[in-house]
Please model this.
Amino acid sequence: MNNDNFFCEYLRNGLRNKDEEALYVCFDYFDIDRDGCLNMKEFGNLAKSLLSDRSGRPYPLSIRMQADMFFVFDRNKDGKIDMEEFKIVWKDWIKVILHPVSALIIVDVQNDFISGTLAIRNCPAGQDGLDVVNVINSMLNSVPFDVVIYSLDWHPPDHVSFIDNLKQRKVHADSKVSAEDAKLFDTVIFEGPPRTEQKLWPRHCVQHTWGAELHPDLKVVRNGIRVYKGINSNIDSYSAFWDNQKMSETKLGAELRKWNVGDVYICGLAYDVCVGSTALHALEHGYRTVVVDDASRGVNMEEIAYMQKTLISRNAVVVTSDKVRDMVEGLDRRPEMGYRAALRLANDKVIV
Model:
């Protein structure tokens, strides 16, 4: 333990139960020049202490990130953070990072994606969807998530994504692939309304069938919440938040708001499709977003790598499951998540 880390000591001792006292102790600790304000350097020291691993070692934090966060909290733009501004820093940033409210979103761990009609082991990446089950179960048994959510593809029989339904809809003249030439996993454009660009999949996860059920070995926790997606025949829905054209949303956002969730941990199937799309929408909604790498499997290795790169570029965090408990308990505090939490406060809206 790094005894010089203020926030590690805060979490270890009685200050965590004395909020008002801790606020003033924290301010005084980092106000090195005792002028009653935090300048940029003093705030940077605070940020480095806050955004550290469980041993108290700070993560690398660029000057740009420090400055961006400083200017969020310097509300009157006088080049310093006074006590009134620091109260916002404490309540809406530091406490959120030290005491996160976390949800695990388990995406589409359903029979058809593991051993059924769209088993991802038969896709180009050759990954086995069954591999995620034990990893997810281990997290459910050991990590104190505040909320657990299971998303399910829940398609009607005439769903637009099924290749065997191709003849039910007219392919647009702009489609690079014609109806006659279309093969499995090709992308076509259907005429509207709504005009839809659609990848063609095998029939899968049809409502009330075995293939749509959660895998029997997956642990389903008491009070776990189920979110159904892809229920509109004419629009696919990769994300657990929205359909692919953002014409309708599921109940996921409302459930996260109900529980006052700030951090979402996302895993499941498929990494480069529904897991990644859910993570991207979580970022859009302003959630501090973590993808659990070893609890996710995908369709195409190049697209998995591209999705990871995209998520990281937007300050999502990609970790293995052994890191999750410390993050959920506020012991391991990643700079990307601290950065997003600060920027969200700029205008109480998402900044990507």
Q: What stands out?
A: Residues 102-157+206-328 form a domain with the Rossmann fold fold (CATH 3.40.50.850). The first strand starts at residue 102 and ends at 107.
